[in-house]
Amino acid sequence: MSNRLCIGFDADDTLWHNENIFENVHERYYTLLSRYHDAATVERALYETEMRNLELYGYGIKGFMLSAIETAISLTEGKIGTGELQELIGLGREMLDHPVELLPHARETLEALAERHRMILITKGDLRDQERKLSKSGIAKYFEAVEIVSEKDKSTYERILARLGIEARLFLMVGNSVKSDILPVLELGGLGVHIPYRITWGHENAESPETEDGRFYHATSIREVLAIAARFGQ
Questions:
Q1: How deeply is 24 buried, as exposed, middle or buried, from its count of CB atoms within 10 A (0-12, 13-18, 19+)?
Q2: How far is CA 69 from CA 11, 177, 194, in A?
Q3: Which CATH code, of 3.30.110.70, 3.40.50.410, 3.40.50.1000, 2.30.40.10, is assigned to 6-16+100-230?
Q4: Helix, strand, or coil here: 41?
């Protein structure tokens, strides 16, 4: 076990933009189906389909697109045309080929932190897509380990920390999701920094923990992690 602080980072909407891509596609999806149903109906049906399929498809663009196609067929009672389905598939391809756009100050903050602390990346989603984004981001060099997982819960973090020889009390997780990035780590006795993104997927909504033991922090920018990590030295 090392006594150095280890900092874990989420990727999507913590280091690079992600949910804004889904937001754009949602709007185009609602427009595509507007002659069949209003946007609220489509949104509700799509979310229900995603939740029903989550255990089978997991997180990521591919699972989302399969649920989007299933929802479109269901809402139109099979009347949706092959041209419209081809348009949906095109939207998915655009998402998978979207440029990786780092959030402000991400690169310089990671570079500064990596000089003093152990760094790992923990993200969930489609393996190939997450590997693509990390490769294109240019920030992989700052992490000693990269973990792409199907779920981010207590047992997942516990396995990762044990395998890497990290004590929970010396592990600080940074992310935009209270549900996936903060609560499981606090439950293990670790530390958390919540940096909210402007959009939060409904499935990731959770109440912030009420704690006064100095293990949980709110931040508005990734730059604030520098000062928070400095409190724990090496």
A1: middle
A2: 27, 27, 33
A3: 3.40.50.1000
A4: helix
pTM score of the predicted model: 0.89
- Side chain identity, residue 92: G
- pLDDT one-digit tens code per residue, 157-207: 999 999 999 999 999 999 999 999 999 999 999 999 999 987 665 556 656
Q: Which two tokens stand for residue 63?
A: 């699972």
19-96 has CATH 3.30.1330.30 classification: no
φ, ψ (nearest 5 deg) of residue 189: 100, 10
Tokens at 68, concatenated: 């989007």
Residue owning tokens 């006594």: 3
CA distance 107 to 54: 32
Domain extent listing, the chain: 6-16+100-230, 19-96
